[in-house]
Design a protein that fits this description.
This protein is mainly beta. About 5% of the residues lie in helices and about 40% in strands. The longest helix is centred in the N-terminal third of the chain and has 6 residues, at about 30-35.
Length: about 190
């Protein structure tokens, strides 16, 4: 397993070692020891799997406020996505900066998104299965969404009119949200 730093401190690309032969392949998608060695100390408590039927569907930008903030380990189990993490910790040197990573069943990459970051993805293929681990369960009262095209953030999704859920279409810009993340405070 190889851990690759991104432009955002704490947001990490995980490249698993893939063992293959004539029968197919095997890979380890999570190893507590390897993550511990890389400084990732999240204790994952829940696995989730979503399916998105249509290419050009955007899910995000989502996060949960403290005390139910979530770190995530995400991957495309089928298909491909453009995955996005945005630093929304007030006072952070990388506040409102974002990073994109293509995750696909073919490249087998995972992305670790720590607490304090909003997360979203755009499907690049039809029939995407998106798997993710979280270190806190879903909490409706702490759940928040930021408008995907918030000009204060300026994510380049590479699409003008994505397919959106009502929740994502109605999400406000970050300035209109009670985000309680502060850099250096867990």
């Amino acid at each position: 397993m190889r851990i690759i730093e991104t432009a955002l401190p704490g947001v990490l690309i995980v490249e698993p070692t893939v063992h293959g032969d004539a029968r197919g392949w095997f890979m380890e998608t999570y190893s507590w020891a390897a993550f511990e060695d890389a400084g990732i100390r999240a204790r994952f408590v829940q696995d989730n799997l979503s399916m998105t039927a249509a290419r050009g569907t955007l899910r995000g930008l989502h996060f949960q406020n403290n005390p139910m903030a979530q770190a995530k380990l995400v991957r495309a189990a089928k298909g491909a996505v453009l995955d996005v993490a945005v630093d929304i910790r007030k006072g952070s040197p990388s506040y409102l900066k974002w990073v994109t990573v293509e995750l696909s069943a073919e490249n087998k990459r995972l992305l670790y998104v720590p607490r304090g970051f909003a997360h979203g993805f755009l499907t690049l293929t039809n029939d995407v299965e998106f798997a993710y681990k979280v270190d806190n369960p879903y909490s409706p009262e702490h759940d928040r969404g930021i408008r995907f095209d918030d000009p204060a953030i300026g994510v380049d999704w590479g699409i003008v009119s994505p397919l959106l859920s009502d929740k994502d279409r109605l999400s406000p810009p970050l300035a209109g949200i009670d985000c309680n993340y502060v850099y250096g405070v867990s």
